[in-house]
Every structure is written in C-alpha cells, then in structure tokens.
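Q: Convert this sequence to structure tokens.
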Amino acid sequence: MIEVKKIFIKSKEKILVDASFCIYKKTALVGQSGSGKSLSLKAILNLLPSSLEAKVEIDAPFHLERGKSIAFIPQNPFTALSPLTKISKQFFAKEEEVFELFSLLNLPKRLFWEYPPNLSGGQLQRVIFAMALVHKPKLLLLDEPTTALDASLRGEIIELLKNLQEKFNFYMLFVTHDINLALKLCENMVVLKEGKVVEIGKSKEIAKAPKSSYTKILFESSFENREFRQ
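A:
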C-alpha cells in the first residue's frame, strides 16, 4: 500500500486540492471534470506549474522517482510522442527489453523503426505503455488513458492493463471520469469532488451502495460519450 498522506494544491484565489487516500494495486481516482484528478497526478509527479502552491506527502515502500519507480501514461497518445522522430529514438532502453514488451503488447517489431503518425491510436497507446514499463516501475499513474480512443479499443486497453498489472505487479492509480471503466479495472476507488475525497473504499461496494449523493449522481450519469458536468 502507498499512503498519500497529503496532496494540497492552492492557487492565489482558492484551494484546488486538499486530499488524502491510499493507493492499492488497482485504485481508481474518479470525479467530474475539474474535480482535481489530473492536478493530483501532476502533484505526485512534481509537474505542477510554479504559479501553484503545493505540498505532497507520500509514504511508499520504495523510493519515489519519476522515470524510474514512477511511470506515467498521458491522456492522448497522439500528442505524447514527437511525430518527427522514429519510435526507436524515443526509447531509452536496450532493444531486447523493448522487443520483449512489444511481444507482450502484441506490437510487431517493425513499428520500432516507424514514425508515430504511421501508427493507429491503439498501437500508439501500446507503445506508450511499453515506454512506461520498460524501466519496471513500481507505481503507474494513468490520466484518462482511453479518452482519445474509440469505444471499440477501450475494452481492449482495459484488459491489457489488467494483464500487465498482474504480470509486473505494480501499483496503479487510474484517473478517469468513466465509472464503468473504473469498475472493470480497479478493485478500489477514491471519489473526488472539488479537490476533496467524498468517498473511498472497494469499487464494488461503492457501486452497490454509494454513501455520497455526489457519488450516486456519478453512477447514474452516462459516461459512454462525454464527461459528467455539474
């Protein structure tokens, strides 16, 4: 278990996030747009702009270091890589290590020497996964990783994430507005509203009997094609 003792983020005008929660092997961080989900990820990664005041306290069973023990999967695979640089030049690892992951991810080796625009959205997302996992991170942070993909690929990516987590046994914090995806992938759930935790627990138990009226609204709303907005 990774204990996030405090994430505190403040702008000049107001407090944006003031939250504490635990990250288990498969944990979802859910909430409406603007609830502070992505800000929380950026705080953990130490990627917040200097204009924001931030304090982060985390107790983990390993040393936290971005790019080594912590890896990040961004929201949009189409903008995550340089389009003018071959994929082989964007990996900082031995070829045999990359090809081992390509095999797990059902990616043909030839893509290693391609330019990103020549790949489909699903292929690009898998390449991003390979980049994130090549250094065997202990914590994987994912920011809406299926948003830019069409519906037919979302289920495929979720199953892939399940298999990768079981194989590599990393901790996973999966940020999403899509309750359905969170339930399919994550055993634990943290519900965020306006930067504060309003509900936390086992995903299935929260789905069966949400305690917060906000959580009930999230479950009643459709997330198939759009974010819920208050």
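Residues 2-79+132-220 form a domain with the Rossmann fold fold (CATH 3.40.50.300).
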